[in-house]
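For the sake of transparency, this paper describes our internal protein records without simplification. Because each token names a local backbone shape, the row as a whole describes the fold. One such record is reproduced below, unchanged from the form in which we store it.
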Amino acid sequence: MTGPDSLKDLLQRARAEVRKVIIGQEAVIDHALIAISTGHHALIEGVPGVAKTLLVRTLARVLGCEYNRIQFTPDLMPADITGTTIYDMQKSEFTLVKGPIFTTFLLADEINRAPAKTQSALLQAMQERRVTIDRDTHQLSQNFTVFATQNPVEYEGTYPLPEAQKDRFMLKIAMGVPERAEELELATRMLGQDSPEETLAKGAVQPAISEADLIELRHGLEAVTIREELVAYVVDVVRATRTSDRVLVGAGPRATQALLLASRAAAALAGRDFVTPDDVRSLCEPILGHRIVLRPEYELEGVTVPEVIAKMLEQVAVPR
């Protein structure tokens, strides 16, 4: 079985390749690798122009697997994602025309630009890695992964994701604007021949993880130890989201599973074979934040989800 050092080396190689294109955004890159290494999906949120799409395209190159992109628009239909059957007059039979969802790594770009009916076309694929078209079920790759980008919901022309859809994403990665030094580096690179887009186009980014590596990586994470007290801590943290008087809808059991798996991956990324309370606490906001719905009266008062999560973490005893 793969040891912690091998896991770390594999993830570090992937991180180094992504850094050739993405300037800064260290936490963003780590969270993306955590989602990929655990076989889950991720939602990337940020204002236009912060390289959300570029990040996902770079990750697809690093994975070296089949890749498709869907640009979500208000007129996009579910069949445009899953595919449909058409009648072949020459053969006198119906033929399946597969949609872009039949791939290994899928970029759902600006997913909240499409209405809920179209967004829901991804639900079965994300949960079961299968697609049903005209009553026939088709199997997707066991490494099928969705990375969706979205603009903040307050932007004009966006549709908030349904709760069931958001719960399918392991974590939400908040991608902010770069720091001054990072933006200065970006501006300098844009004036030369090594802009991030050109770096990716020229093939400077090499595949660092194969599909076989992904399977081995996920099995290797099982060797990362989580003490019973930490498992109980994760359960208590997630359950606290359901009892807070500020929360209308708390996180479900899928959030507990996600927090445990992500904590293991974070430990492996740090080169450890054990999980610490800091691993859990650092991932609470990206994993729980998009699953929590605040009560309207508290939203009107300006209370934010990160504040609620921070308050809950203070109330749950940290294991020694």
About this structure: The mean pLDDT is 86. The radius of gyration is 20 Å.
